[in-house]
Specification:
Elements (H helix, E strand, L loop, with lengths): L1 H15 L2 H7 L2 H18 L1 H4 L41 H37 L1 H15 L3 H15 L2 H4 L3 H12 L1 H15 L3 H8 L4 H37 L11 H9 L8 H27 L6
Helix pairs in contact: 3-5, 3-14, 5-6, 5-9, 5-10, 5-12, 5-13, 5-14, 6-10, 7-9, 10-12, 11-12, 12-13, 12-14, 13-14
Length: about 300
């Protein structure tokens, strides 16, 4: 036990003394961004315990509470809400917490899908070369000529159309994740391909070939660890883009179902009332979305610079 504790303490000490952590604590803006992401992530994860009400439980709603301004008692019920309510009497603060759960889930899951597809195809193209490389990269080039949003929208429409009507609402979130993931894999594939083409000519890869290791094991054990650094940077930056893409699709009415709205759905609802004076219905979900996207972007920028040896 004492030896295990000493090993863990040594690992923690090395992590705290690393260049990466030194760069992190020397950047106040990055620390603030990390705190914002952590707070919003924990609040979304703990929404059932933090939120004053379940905004999507019809039995907990009172139409008389509708359009109540922030921190002002409702003239009919006397109830006060931190960020006000929407037209249905839903607490905006609770709706943001629950909506952020969906947005973060779709963002993280779609990034994982993009990474899985992009890394696999990038390794294959860079290691095999030849016609395999040409086919994969031409497909990626063709897809990159279209906006990611348009590709995701097309894939989402095709997938929804192929599902039975009864299953469309239940499968909306998985289909949305898959659509965004497929739309964003070329960035990962191109980066992984470039690193793989450099690594495959090095001595350790040639030695692995000489001893008879299969190509799959060489790519998985020897080349893959060397491509994870650049991929991690792309994934961090891509997370905010995935969240914004999901919000855009939901804002257009083709994202998550109304029974499980995300931040994009809340924005679509809020923009219908901005002209009538109920500004808080749109303003606070928009602030939450901007805070998430901006903080994740700042973390991605810091990680890109911290992992760049030319800037050390």
């Amino acid at each position: 036990m004492a030896a295990a504790d000493a090993v863990r303490a040594g690992r923690l000490r090395r992590a705290l003394d690393s260049d990466l952590f030194y760069s992190f604590r020397r950047s106040p803006l990055t620390v603030v961004a990390a705190v914002v992401v952590l707070v919003i992530g924990l609040a979304a994860l703990l929404a059932p315990w933090i939120a004053p009400t379940d905004p999507f439980d019809p039995s907990s709603l009172d139409l008389m509470d509708g359009k109540t301004p922030p921190l002002k008692p409702n003239e009919f019920t006397g109830h006060t809400f931190l960020l006000g309510t929407d037209d249905q009497g839903r607490d905006v603060f609770s709706a943001i917490l629950y909506g952020a759960r969906i947005s973060l889930l779709v963002g993280f899951a779609s990034v994982v899908v993009s990474m899985a597809i992009g890394i696999a195809l990038g390794l294959l193209a860079g290691y095999r070369g030849g016609w395999v490389d040409s086919v994969i990269m031409r497909v990626a080039d063709v897809q990159l000529t279209f906006p990611d949003l348009l590709v995701a929208l097309m894939i989402f429409g095709i997938a929804r159309g192929a599902l039975p009507i009864a299953a469309q609402e239940h499968m909306a979130i998985p289909v949305l994740i898959l659509s965004i993931g497929i739309a964003k894999w070329p960035q990962y594939a191109r980066t992984v391909r470039g690193v793989t083409m450099v690594e495959r000519g090095k001595d350790y890869v040639q030695a692995a070939r000489v001893v008879g290791l299969p190509a799959g094991k060489i790519m998985r054990r020897h080349i893959l660890p060397n491509v994870l650094g650049p991929v991690l940077v792309i994934a961090t930056l891509g997370l905010s883009l995935a969240i914004i893409t999901e919000a855009t699709l939901s804002f257009l009415g083709v994202g998550v179902p109304p029974t499980s709205p995300s931040l994009g759905t809340l924005l679509r609802i809020g923009q219908e009332y901005i002209a009538s004076g109920e500004w808080w219905i749109l303003f606070f979900p928009a602030i939450a979305l901007v805070a998430i996207a901006l903080s994740v972007n700042l973390l991605g920028d810091w990680l890109r610079d911290a992992l760049n040896p030319r800037l050390r």
